[in-house]
Amino acid sequence: MSVLVLGGTAEARDLAGRLLDAGVPVLSSLAGRVQRPRLPAGEVRIGGFGGATGLRAHLVSAGHHAVVDATHPFAAQISAHAALGCATVGVPLLRLQRPGWSTLPGAADWHWVDGHAEAAGVAATLGARPFLTVGRQSLGDFAEALADRDALTRVVDDPGTVPTRWRVLLDRGPFALDAELEVMRQHRSDVLVTKDSGGSYTRPKLDAAAQLGIPVVVVRRPAAPHGVRTVPGVEQAVTWVRSLS
Ligand code: NAP
Predict the structure, then answer these.
(1) Does residue 202 line the site of ligand 1, with CB under 6 A?
(2) 24: burial class by Cβ within 10 Å (0-12, 13-18, 19+)?
(3) Is residue 31 in contact with ligand 1, taking CB distance under 6 Å?
(4) Hey, whose CA ends up nearest to atom 24 of ligand 1?
(5) pTM assigned to the model
(6) d(CA 10, CA 70)
(7) Is 165 left (phi over 0), alpha (psi -120 to 50) or beta?
(8) Mutational pocket test of ligand 1: of 36, 44, 78, 84, the residue with most ligand atoms within 8 Å of the beta carbon
(9) Model confidence pLDDT, tens digit, residues 17-43
(10) By C-alpha distance, which of 78, 85, 63 is closest to 30?
(11) Atom 30 (ligand 1) nearest CA
């Protein structure tokens, strides 16, 4: 049997390695968003499928026996396409989604919002020196509301033009607590903006914000497609795949 792993996350890379070790052929799929992606073991394809129709055509032609959607919790479009495509052609689908941060200590005190534009508005009321950790693709939602702030924005790849007062930090996780404290102290950040990505790679910024007494604005996750079985970890995903053979 061969498994299509929709990736772009640490969990997807881990899963691909674990399945290969178990003798299960895997094709990992990446969107091609970052210039130098961390590649999983095994076969990899890069680039969109061409919408839900293209993904369905791929499933038919490649003959995968199962799909694991291990994409980022905020990659809602590809998850919707996977749910539709797999249901249409009758291929079993599992969603591997790491738990969010809403149960962490202090999470009840964070400013939870439903989208990036709302996050920008709330951040504007909270600080003059925001630390934006929302990803390159979402920065446009912050540009107007925070153009007059001395924002520090951390992204993996060059975001192109940003407001002149903003400073861009090119870096990629995992990030350690000491380093996060240093970044926030140096920048004199007074509000942290993030999305509820979950996981441990980027969590230390939340601990740093708590230590420094900085308010946190968190964008809630988009809704997941209905009716798709979901597991929180790689171990459960491996068990699910093995149960299909
Ligand atoms: P998205 O909005 O859900 O997807 C937009 C389009 O990108 C999809 O319709 C699809 O194009 C293509 N695509 C997305 N993921 C793909 C994959 N794994 N393989 C092939 N095509 C894919 O996705 P996104 O939020 O831009 O995220 C893109 C990728 O970056 C995902 O793989 C995700 O795991 C990773 N990532 C995202 C974030 C985030 O914050 N969103 C953070 C870290 C990593 P077609 O319609 O042409 O098929």
Answers:
(1) no
(2) buried
(3) yes
(4) 75
(5) 0.96
(6) 9
(7) alpha
(8) 78
(9) 999 999 999 999 999 999 999 999 999
(10) 78
(11) 8
